[in-house]
Model the fold of this input.
Amino acid sequence: MDLTLAEIFAAQRTISGKVTRTPLLPSRHLSEVAGLPFFLKMETMQPTGAFKLRGAMNAAQKVPEGTHTLTCCSTGNHGRSVAFAARKLGIKSVICMSSLVPQAKIDGIKALGAGIRIVGTSQDDALAECQTLAREEGVSEISPFDDPLVIAGQGTIGLEILEDLPNVKTLLVPLSGGGLAAGVALAAKSINPAIRVIGLTMDRGAAMYASLNAGRPVDITEVESLADSLGGGIGLNNQRSFALCKKFLDDVILVSEEEIYQAMQMLYFEEAQVAEGASVVGIAACIAGKLPDLTGPIATIVTGRNVDMRAFTNVITGKDIILGDYRLKGAAYVS
Ligand SMILES: *Cc1c(COP(=O)(O)O)cnc(C)c1O
Done:
């Protein structure tokens, strides 16, 4: 399947009424910081707490006849969305994850009635397990980012932003496997090629960043991060998302754990929004002054809210955070 704007419009029709049409909220505080109108696309409001429902729902509607079980590998949010979509279709799901996935995310998936497999210490280990499962008759795998139907589903976010803010100039998109960035950039640039699309990711274990620099998909070592949903490789055999990110992303910017921490605090205290670390990398880059020559209006996608609320409370109250062998020095928020 060749991925074009037409497939993204088709996805929009397919998932209409099955996912939430999320609001684009103006942020007074971030508009002041950036000196340009700044908007937040609130994917935290999806029923599964993250945008991944769009791609999962689009792909789940198109699985082969006779499919009785959906499977996937996941850092948590895709699995929850596949489990949700399977339940909606009245079929089973088995979600494969590594031991790096936070318990709060696993609990959310279990609550939807999905089977759970925890294997290994990386997304690659989880992928191997789900590909073994998918060899069985009637089991269909849905990739978290490297599937045209998933990319088209995520691309509907781009269509909605352009419906609400036709003169948007810059899109700040959290980046991991690149399904989101690929879909959103394809949608936005097909409608207006002048829109800049910037990928944002953490500076520890960013697979797409390393791969774009190397000119081919490369392996990285996964480490614990506040942006746990951005962990994982892009697959050495990546078919789609790498090429699309290479073609469409104008830049990729890295943010530190400390910057992510501050951005979570900022979104909470200034906008009263709860979001997980992966969602705030666009905001983090903006407040850290890492985005020179921005043109506005700017929109960032606040991609998800699936964070352990005890861990979130520690961030909000300025506590130190232990991430594997890294100690993030906390500090109370100052406006
Ligand atoms: C998956 C995810 C991302 C990154 O999406 P990719 O398509 O893998 O690049 C960003 N934020 C959250 C909350 C996610 O769950």
Observations:
- The first strand starts at residue 24 and ends at 26.
